[in-house]
Amino acid sequence: MKKWRGRTGPVGLPPGTLVYSGEKRVETARIRIMDYDEGALREATAGSPEECLAFLETPSVTWMNVVGLHDVKLIEGLGRAFDLHPLLLEDVLNTEQRPKLDDFESSVFLILRTLHYDEATSEISSEQISLVLGPDYLMTFQEIEEDPFEPIRERLRASKGRIRKLGPDYLAYALIDAIVDHYFVVLEKIGDGIEELGEAAVNDPSPETLHTIQTLKRELSYMRRSIWPLREVVSAFQRDGSALVQESTGVYLRDVYDHTIQVVETIEAFRDMVSGMFDTYLSSVSNRMNEVMKVLTIIATIFIPVTFIAGIYGMNFRNMPELEWPWAYYGTLGLMAVVCVVMILYFRKKRWL
């Protein structure tokens, strides 16, 4: 699982210094553009900020998706071209930010986190996605292009729904909604894993099961840190009344807020289930140990009187009366057998066996 590293990079730099804190995930940074209005859609790939500015000369909505944050010069050039605040660009390049919202005079800046679930290893990873909402554009920044946005692109191409009729604020809502909906996909897979893990904790409490429980507990804590602040981000986005967010879009943002609350509640429920699963594991191990000790105790109890009889006749005294009996050996074995049978019947009557 990708660990939460917090703020990384050189210490003591002035505010607004652009330093990329992540890892290079793609070879070449590029800008994927979708420019659209109700009647037309254009798609292009730009390699410089100047190419992006050409699309803003028309009243259409321009979505610029920047893939690859290791190219600091490209990010800096976009900041100059679109007059973005240096602190905004600094947060874009620091890829371990919590979800947040900053309302600048000419733009609204949001940081969200996507989740990816690896079915092969059952591990969860996270990626930061930054959104900059402007008057007639939306700019997104991400390290890789593995995102839940492809259905949004298909809706734009097919002109389905109202997305081509409304402005960039509705597009921002659609992207946020796609991220939140993808949380449910990840949570569904985690829920299936929790059910299987619960059965294993009861029926087969092995050390591997305990390791899986501890790993899942850490992953859920990581998810909580990644998603919990998103509630306030979505609430502030639709509540603070930015001039860039239309009143009609606020209705949809409230719906996303409800979904976010549902995601957070589901994560909390999963954390409680996993915490209880740890207690179940300890109880199962304790019960199994008690069963083993019960069997060993019963076996030892059965052989205690038999050992006592064998100990008596193992003593080397000359005048023991039974030593001269012709059937003493068989009689002693029979007595031992009778004692064992009587004790077993007694244990069954007491339901100890």
Q: What share of residues are in beta strands?
A: 5-15%
User: Helix content range of the residues, please?
Assistant: 40-55%
Oligomer state equals single chain
What is the CATH superfamily label of the largest domain?
Answer: CorA soluble domain-like
Topology:
Elements: E1 30-36, E2 41-46, H1 49-53, E3 61-67, H2 72-81, H3 86-93, E4 100-103, E5 108-118, E6 123-133, E7 137-142, H4 150-158, H5 168-203, H6 207-227, H7 230-239, H8 247-312, H9 328-349
Parallel strand pairs: 3-7
Antiparallel strand pairs: 1-2, 1-3, 4-5, 5-6, 6-7
Helix pairs in contact: 5-8, 6-8, 7-8, 8-9
Write structural notes for this entry.
This protein is of the alpha+beta class and 353 residues long. Helices cover 53% and strands 15% of the residues. It has two domains: 255 residues, 2-Layer Sandwich (Beta Polymerase, domain 2); 65 residues, Up-down Bundle (Methane Monooxygenase Hydroxylase, Chain G, domain 1). The chain is rod-shaped and about 120 Å long.
